[in-house]
Amino acid sequence: MAITAIKGMSDIYSPEVEVWQQIEEKARQLFARFGFRELRTPILEKTELFARSIGEDTDIVQKEMYTFPDRKGNMLTLRPEATASIVRAIIQHRLYNVPTMGKFFAIGPMFRYERPQKGRYRQFHQVDAEVVGSKEPVVDAEVMYWAMLFLEEIGIRDSELHINSLGCPECRSPFRERLVKYLREYEESFCKDCGRRIYTNPLRVFDCKVEKCKEIVKGAPKVLDSLCGECKKHFEKVLFFLDKTRCTYKLNHHLVRGLDYYNRTAFEIIASGLGAQNAVGGGGRYDGLFKELGGPDIPAVGFALGIERLLIVLKESSPQLKIGVPDLYMIALGEKAQEVCFSIAQGLRKKEIYVEMGYELKSLKSQMRRADKFGAVHVLIIGENELEKGIAILRNMVTKKQSEIALDEVENILVERIKKESE
Ligand SMILES: [Zn+2]
Ligand SMILES: [Zn+2]
User: Fold this and answer.
1) Which residues surround ligand 2, an ion (CB under 5 A)?
2) Per residue in 168-212, pLDDT tens?
3) What letters, b where the CB count within 10 A reaches 16 and e where it falls short, cover 115-138?
4) With contact defined as beta carbons under 8 Å apart, do 124 and 8 qualify?
5) Ligand 2 center to residue 176 CA distance, Å?
6) Which residues touch 177 (CB under 8 Å, ≥6 apart)?
7) Model's pTM, two decimal places?
8) Could you give all domains of the chain from N- to C-terminal order, each with its CATH number?
């Protein structure tokens, strides 16, 4: 039996992979405009990193991590998200000391052991951004603006920004008290996990996917009503700067994100077409994480967008992006002609022309059919006759017009013509 890929992990190939490339390319361009630098971290980290940052009592750490011992028995985990690794790397290399570096991005695969379904995979990919070193609300707004602008630029227009504040440790404890008081009234009705969470980590009850738990938390107290003066001011300023970007947003009182390290601003971007998994991404502020991971006390804010989810939304909202069409398709008829074609093709490619060539010495008819499948407009045909005359035939597949070009001028003439057309 043939070996297949692991469940929930996909091969990505054409024509879809070209859409991936365009999304990644767009992200890189937009990151550059905002001054983000790429930071590539390993896919494997010590398990401890995620347990400490994401939180022991989160679904991610409890149920969803790919964790295993290496040959020496050290526990390793395939990264389930990017922030923890990025923070670890920034601390390890003291990147917070470099004045020109405060904004980081990463694009790559993440791993979570979940039941695969539409928009949820065991290997999934994220575009991730982190801004390090500032508490200022203007940064929160800018980060959210980046995400909204990115969605707009790749062609997703009907997304919604949902936002909440989770407060700071100071205002979190009175909130926690109010929340626990409320949750305990329904103690008997919660699922087993939530029954425990009420006492260990009550905020996590908001993440529960069980229907009856979701119903109960609808009436739960709002964090915004418990914010301390500083957090309230911060949140108001975030909204003020968001208004300046002309992003529209909705307050979502029960948005808490499934990770423990967030404080103050938390946000999600919701897009239609995703069903229950309707967030294409989200993020927030995590001012305590650097210290938690043994670094200096540095505030930070960031977000991640799921590429697979963006693709689902894109598929439903706009036509497929077009894949690259060769500038020239070359048809060789006979071995001698193939030798000549081969060197012309390499010469043209060196001059930045995209050339496709029939490698099999098939009939003219069958090679023309293949050229047509590629969507090539220009086809260069060389056979025994042409070789004898020292020419090649250039055929325009749209106008059906043919012309002869002297073999020793083929390269120059084609480069000129193709570059002129693409201008
Ligand atoms: Zn506070
Ligand atoms: Zn529950």
Assistant:
1) 191, 194, 208, 210, 213
2) 988 888 888 999 999 999 988 999 989 988 988 888 888 888 899
3) eeeebbbbbbbbbbbbbbbeebbe
4) no
5) 17
6) none
7) 0.87
8) 16-168+228-317 (3.30.930.10), 328-415 (3.40.50.800)
